[in-house]
Specification:
By secondary structure, this protein is an alpha+beta fold. Among the domains are: 2-37 and 45-189, Phosphatidylinositol 3-kinase Catalytic Subunit, Chain A, domain 1 (Ubiquitin-like (UB roll)), CATH 3.10.20.90; 287-352, Herpes Virus-1 (2-Layer Sandwich); 436-502, no CATH class. The chain has helices spanning 2-22, 51-62, 110-123, 155-165, 169-183, 191-194, 241-276, 313-322, 345-351, 354-371, 403-413, 418-433, and strands spanning 26-33, 38-45, 69-73, 76-77, 95-100, 204-205, 212-213, 281-282, 287-288, 295-296, 302-303, 310-311, 375-377, 386-388, 436-438, 445-447, 454-456, 463-465, 470-471. The longest helix has 36 residues, at 241-276.
């Protein structure tokens, strides 16, 4: 008798702990998915209930057989004997995922499903816990008066009572009454609380995973899908504490991002100002010189400011000294592209010596003098000076005749002048044989001695394509491919025999 009372006391203490946990009813957000569709529901659960009890509850409320249910809580595949609390279910709003297998995959037949449904409806407890039931007499009406009362006697005590019931039914009913009077515990009806939630939940449904997110959340908490643009946060909505904390964290993150971005901008501006004070910009990364194909470590090459092409110093110095133009073009060339960028004056000055820089300046002045129509060079021997006069020195030396008439008269007089006749015959022979040509702009005879197919008229300074016998560029000058020979346009040569006219 003492042993029975000691056992009874222990079970009563355990019963109290269990029932205290049962009063903590939580709303579990369940994302239900199968192979073709998904939805989101809310289920009332107790943290102490097992996964097996949760499966049975879903079977009773929604008709999902336990065999087809696969639960995932806290990134763990749930087992039947573990409680929901062990997977982290402690408060309202906790999320669980239920994946439904096909009946064929779960080896579930329609007959078995029907039998299990009938058995569950007949023998299921009022709540979703799989707990042993106290034997109830039809005469005392102990449990018939309230379906919300739950019997959670331990299995050992239940077995003892069952054993004693075979000897004395009256003694069993007396024991049951004594136990209920001793612990005086009864759970209020929770039938309505355990029914599927039909109230509308504030928030927006994710179009991808159907998860119900808080109204102010910009993206789905599960799959990070953006909130629908058509959704508007309700006017009177009051965020809860976790949501306010998330909003504050987002504001703090945005503030830190803006500070970091502003700091980066200031650093970039300071770096650009420092680089602008340098005559030459070094290469930040290792590259190959496209002229000599030498490896250039970081800082050993020169990055051109205008086009950002990189070459070694020696190659750029050679390009400057061999250039016939006052503007030194970028030497970058390939099969599909020819760079039209030019070197800046301070880059040229930093690459060559002082004497070479003076010669480059003088070459530019000489070129400007030759291209200026009103230029006048000083007649003093070895003097490099020249000026520009607005007085026209062009006057007719053939009064009473225009240029055409004068040239015709000169051709007539050349018949009796053997020297003029020989010169004219030589020039005509060169033109007819293809060794010379008429300038397409001014009409003088020009000749290519050797080298590539590019040449320039010494009078009008137009660029000429030798192989096509026409101008290299269009009417807008260098780079205009609307006219001229159109070499390398659409990766096509201007002539099958073209030898680099550009």
């Amino acid at each position: 008798m003492c042993l029975s009372f000691y056992t009874f006391s222990r079970h009563c203490a355990m019963l109290c702990n269990v029932l205290m946990g049962l009063f903590n009813v939580n709303s579990l957000v369940v994302v239900v998915e199968d192979s073709t569709s998904s939805c989101c529901i809310t289920v009332k659960v107790f943290p102490q209930m097992t996964t097996e009890s949760l499966k049975q509850q879903m079977f009773l409320e929604y008709g999902f057989h336990p065999r087809v249910q696969r639960w995932i809580i806290g990134q763990c595949l749930c087992t039947d004997k573990r409680s929901l609390a062990s997977y982290g279910v402690h408060q309202d709003g906790d999320t669980a995922f239920l994946y439904l297998l096909s009946a064929r995959h779960a080896r579930l037949t329609h007959q078995v499903l029907q039998q299990d449904q009938e058995s569950a409806l007949l023998h299921s407890p009022p709540l979703s816990f799989q707990t042993p039931q106290l034997p109830v007499s039809s005469t005392n009406g102990l449990l018939s008066r309230d379906r919300g009362a739950i019997s959670t006697l331990p299995s050992r005590l239940h077995m003892i009572n069952s054993y004693r019931s075979s000897s004395s039914g009256e003694s069993e009913r007396q024991k049951v009454s004594e136990i209920r009077d001793f612990i005086n515990l009864e759970i209020p009806p929770l039938k309505d609380g355990l029914s599927p939630s039909t109230s509308s939940t504030q928030g927006w449904s994710c179009p991808s995973c159907t998860y119900i997110n808080k109204p102010t959340r910009p993206g789905c908490e599960i799959c990070s899908t953006n909130r629908p643009e058509s959704y508007i946060v309700p006017g009177g909505y009051q965020p809860d504490a976790p949501e306010l904390r998330r909003i504050q964290q987002e504001k703090e993150s945005i503030r830190q991002y803006q500070q970091a971005r502003e700091k980066e901008r200031r650093e970039n501006f300071a770096r650009l100002v420092m680089m602008d004070g340098q005559d030459l910009v070094p290469n930040p990364d290792p590259v190959d010189c496209r002229i000599c194909y030498m490896d250039l470590p970081s800082g050993q090459g020169v990055l051109l400011r205008e086009c950002l092409h990189c070459f070694c110093r020696d190659c750029l110095r050679s390009v400057i000294m061999l250039s016939e133009e006052p503007e030194v073009s970028c030497p970058y060339r390939d099969d599909a592209y020819s760079c039209d960028g030019v070197l800046q004056e301070r880059e040229i000055k930093a690459l060559v010596s002082a004497e070479e820089y003076e010669r480059w300046l003088q070459r530019g002045l000489s070129m400007a003098e030759s291209r200026c129509e009103g230029s006048y060079h000083c007649a003093t021997p070895d003097c490099l000076g020249w000026c520009v006069s607005h007085v026209s020195f062009l006057h007719a030396i053939h009064e009473g005749m225009n240029c055409k008439q004068y040239q015709d008269d000169l051709a007539v007089r050349a018949i009796n002048d053997s020297a003029a006749r020989r010169t004219t015959h030589l020039l005509m022979t060169l033109v007819q044989s293809g060794e010379a040509m008429y300038c397409p702009q001014c009409g003088i005879i020009v000749q290519k001695r050797d080298g590539c197919d590019w040449l320039r008229c010494t009078v009008c300074h137009i660029e000429i394509c030798w192989v096509t016998r026409g101008p290299r560029w269009g009417p807008k000058g260098p780079g205009d491919t609307s006219g001229g020979c159109r070499c390398n346009v659409n990766n096509q040569k201007c002539h099958p025999k073209c030898q680099n006219c550009h």
